[in-house]
TrEMBL record:
<dbReference type="Pfam" id="PF12937">
    <property type="entry name" value="F-box-like"/>
</dbReference>
<dbReference type="Pfam" id="PF25372">
    <property type="entry name" value="DUF7885"/>
</dbReference>
<dbReference type="InterPro" id="IPR036047">
    <property type="entry name" value="F-box-like_dom_sf"/>
</dbReference>
<dbReference type="GO" id="GO:0031146">
    <property type="term" value="P:SCF-dependent proteasomal ubiquitin-dependent protein catabolic process"/>
</dbReference>
<dbReference type="InterPro" id="IPR001810">
    <property type="entry name" value="F-box_dom"/>
</dbReference>
<feature type="domain" description="F-box/LRR-repeat protein 15-like leucin rich repeat">
    <location>
        <begin position="108"/>
        <end position="239"/>
    </location>
</feature>
<dbReference type="InterPro" id="IPR057207">
    <property type="entry name" value="FBXL15_LRR"/>
</dbReference>
<feature type="domain" description="F-box">
    <location>
        <begin position="42"/>
        <end position="77"/>
    </location>
</feature>
<protein>
    <submittedName>
        <fullName>F-box protein SKP2A</fullName>
    </submittedName>
</protein>
<dbReference type="InterPro" id="IPR006553">
    <property type="entry name" value="Leu-rich_rpt_Cys-con_subtyp"/>
</dbReference>
<dbReference type="InterPro" id="IPR032675">
    <property type="entry name" value="LRR_dom_sf"/>
</dbReference>
<dbReference type="GO" id="GO:0019005">
    <property type="term" value="C:SCF ubiquitin ligase complex"/>
</dbReference>
Length: 345
């Protein structure tokens, strides 16, 4: 039904009658009774039942249903905590307060508009006013939405934000990242891959403010240098001291940066990246764990985590032990051959 462009009232009424017939198994039935309340029309469906139905639908269908009537819109808004608009791609042309009026009562904690290249910054800024509990936001590829105006609104309204993806929003610069860092200090995961305008200033601000940062994506951010890596390493030591005091000595060495992507970032030196890897024990270059990604940076080929170094040492130890054993056997054989030759003489 949703896929049809036009559906008349008679068809909707007929669908409702058929639905009620299936529900009670009576061809003469025009409605059912639930908790003492008669259900004879679509609008009579209880909110609890409607929310249960919507929970089984995809985001696209739920969005369509929210436009049926004000009652359904309010009910869906009341129970909706996650919203994905990435299926709309370039068709999500929301540009002002009017079109997104149906979202004003949302209490979202997850919002995904990745790939919506026509989603405007005004729409996103307006939407953040009703997403005060937002924890996850995916803006990947939303070039028009990721502006100073929208990102300042996110930093002002979404202080509980923990995960943000701004990958390939190539108009994002230092000022926008810094405003986000100060407005959302609880950020845990941040993807800035392809944001080629950012510099060390962005990473330094994140290192100083976002003490819970666990994952950072800087793929193809070629303006990032050793200064940014040093700031991350120094923040580790500073934050470790602060958290040690606040937790009365209960500090986990696994806390801190656990994933870092600096592929195609060619301005770092091996010594700096190696120092960063040594500082964060959860960063690995070894096979199977690989949480420090450096592909495309040939000068970082010899950066290794402690696991890889230990594995190399173990291999060398085994090799040298076996080699020494083989040498001993060879020498013994030489002595035996020499003794046999002397005896025959």
């Amino acid at each position: 039904m949703i896929g049809q462009a036009k559906v008349g009232n008679e068809n909707l009424d007929l669908c409702f009658v058929k639905l009620m017939m299936v529900a009670v198994g009576n061809t003469a039935c025009k409605g059912v009774e639930m908790n003492g309340v008669g259900i004879t029309q679509w609008k009579d469906i209880p909110v609890e039942l409607l929310l249960r139905i919507v929970s089984l639908l995809d985001d696209q269908t739920a969005n369509v249903l929210s436009g049926v009537c004000s009652g359904w819109r309010d009910a869906i808004s009341f129970g909706l905590t996650r919203l994905c608009l990435s299926w709309t791609w370039t068709s999500a042309k929301v540009s002002g307060p009017g079109p997104q009026q149906k979202f004003q009562d949302l209490d979202l904690n997850r919002l995904n508009i990745s790939g919506c290249t026509s989603f405007s910054d005004e729409a996103l800024a307006y939407l953040t006013n009703f997403c005060l509990k937002l924890k996850l936001l995916n803006l990947r590829g939303c070039i028009k939405a990721a502006t100073n105006h929208a990102l300042q609104a996110i930093g002002r309204n979404c202080n509980a934000l923990q995960s943000l993806n701004m990958g390939w929003c190539d108009n994002v610069g230092d000022h926008r990242v810094m405003s986000l860092a100060y407005g959302c200090p609880d950020l845990r995961c941040l993807d800035l891959c392809g944001c080629m305008r950012i510099t060390d200033d962005s990473v330094i601000a994140l290192a100083n403010v976002c003490v819970h940062l666990r994952s950072l994506g800087l793929y193809y951010c070629r303006n990032i240098t050793d200064s940014a890596m040093y700031s991350l390493a120094q923040s580790r030591m500073k934050n470790k001291g602060l958290m040690w005091k606040s937790m009365k000595g209960r500090y986990n060495d696994e806390d801190g940066l656990k994933s870092l992507n600096i592929s195609q970032c060619t301005a770092q030196t091996p010594s700096t990246v190696q120092a960063l890897c040594d500082t964060f024990s959860a960063l690995h270059t070894c096979s199977g764990r690989h949480s420090l990604v450096m592909s495309g940076s040939l000068n970082l080929t010899f950066v290794h985590c402690s696991c890889a170094v230990q594995s190399h040492r173990t291999f060398n130890s085994i090799y040298h032990t076996a080699h020494s054993r083989d040498c001993s056997k060879f020498i013994s054989m030489i002595y035996m051959i020499a003794e046999t030759h002397l005896d025959s003489c």
